[in-house]
Specification:
- By secondary structure, the protein is α/β, with parallel strands linked by helices.
- It has a single domain (about 5-375), classed as TIM Barrel, CATH 3.20.20.
- Helix content is about 45%, strand content about 10%.
- The protein has 15 helices and 12 strands.
- It is globular and about 60 Å long.
Length: about 375
């Protein structure tokens, strides 16, 4: 669409993104690992939770705001770190931090996206989160962390579910090499042929060493079990980030929302919990908050919105998400996020026979079928 500011639904933004994105870029952003079973289970786990609304409760103006890392944000949604964002918007992370400043939320900036981390930090007055992929030895890590601290970032995310890069067969089929499209200025001094060895050697000791060296709050992204949540707490991790990498790493994993309750059982009240993995609608966010998360991070939705309309597209996407959250809070009979409990949910069979990344959007699904048939 020509004017993303007038979009009334996420579906309009997604269709606009599909029209504007190169097919290989769409597959990179929207696809998953191998058979994409984990990606589909992300959607399946969300669709398996139904609501138990309460009625005749006064809800004149539900409050969707929350506090995360000591900062008040407009909705419990932040931008997940996404690499190669310049394929969706030429300014990459600059569009993201500007949009979050304008809307009233925050973003985690990926080491794998442009521009330089120093430029990203300078572009926002908001809370600054930097996401680290380990691509070099400990000396390289220390130099990178020193850059992060000097740039003024407030927190560090360490992504830990990429000991080996997942087989993303859409990318393999398209011969799309992500490392050739990443922002190299954030990866100074690495040996590309040896970087996988450093990723595969990560341990909890490494996480502690990073925290000690940089002195920033540390979030560990990629927690999917009670056992790892318990270790994270014992190791002094500040934020537990539940994630299966959007279904892009290990195939045949559980949906992200299915992992949340057992993590929340041990971590809730002890460390904030972030979750990502296929969250696309306000109802998805409400389910995550009610089952124990503090905030939800969006990746694919962020990329689609940027492709649809850059900074304006991302702001509009968050505004639509806010409208969905507030309406559904009212229909549940709650005035604020903290009033949502597991008692508002019923766990049953989803109605969608074939979950997919766009199955929550009926207009998009129909449009894509027409695309596939050549009649769009």
């Amino acid at each position: 669409m020509d004017d993303v500011k007038n979009a009334l639904t996420q579906q309009e933004l997604i269709i606009a993104a599909k029209k504007r994105m190169a097919p290989v870029t769409w597959d990179f952003l929207s696809g998953g690992g191998e058979s994409e079973t984990t990606l589909k289970r992300n959607r399946h786990s969300l669709d398996s939770v139904a609501f138990r609304p309460r009625v005749l409760i006064s809800v004149p103006d539900p409050d969707a705001t929350t506090t995360f890392m000591g900062q008040k944000i407009r909705i419990p949604v932040i931008c997940a770190p996404v690499g190669s964002l310049h394929h969706m918007d030429p300014t990459g992370n600059l569009a993201v931090v500007h949009a979050m400043d304008k809307f009233g939320s925050m973003a985690a900036i990926s080491i794998m996206s442009n521009p330089r981390l120093e430029d990203c930090a300078a572009a926002t007055k908001g809370y600054k989160i930097f996401q680290l992929y380990v691509r070099g030895d400990w000396e390289w890590v220390k130099k990178t962390l020193d850059r992060v601290v000097a740039a003024g970032f407030d927190a560090l995310v360490i992504t830990v579910d990429t000991a080996h890069y997942g087989r993303r067969e859409r990318d393999l089929y398209n011969r799309f090499l992500r490392r050739n499209s990443a922002q190299r200025s954030n990866l100074e001094g690495i040996d590309l042929d040896a970087e996988w060895k450093h990723r595969g050697a990560l341990t909890w000791d490494f996480v502690e060493a990073c925290k000690k060296h940089c002195g920033l709050p540390v979030m560990v992204k990629g927690i999917a079990t009670r056992e790892d949540a318990e270790i994270a707490l014992k190791r002094g991790v500040d934020v537990i980030w539940v994630s299966n990498h959007g279904g892009r790493q290990m195939d045949h994993g559980r949906g992200a929302l299915a992992c949340l309750p057992e993590v929340a059982e041990v971590a809730k009240g002890k460390a904030p919990i972030v979750i990502d993995g296929g969250f696309l609608r306000g109802t998805d966010v409400i389910k995550a908050i009610g089952l124990g998360a503090d905030v939800v991070a969006v990746g694919k939705l962020q990329g689609w919105a940027l492709a649809a309309g850059g900074e304006d597209g991302l702001v509009r996407s968050f505004e639509i998400m806010e409208a969905e959250i507030k309406m559904n809070l009212a229909l549940l009979g709650v005035n604020k996020l903290s009033e949502i409990t597991p008692a508002h949910f019923f766990h049953g069979a989803p109605v969608m026979n074939e979950p997919s990344i766009v199955s929550p959007f009926p207009v998009v699904s129909e449009a894509f079928r027409r695309w596939d048939s050549g009649s769009y």
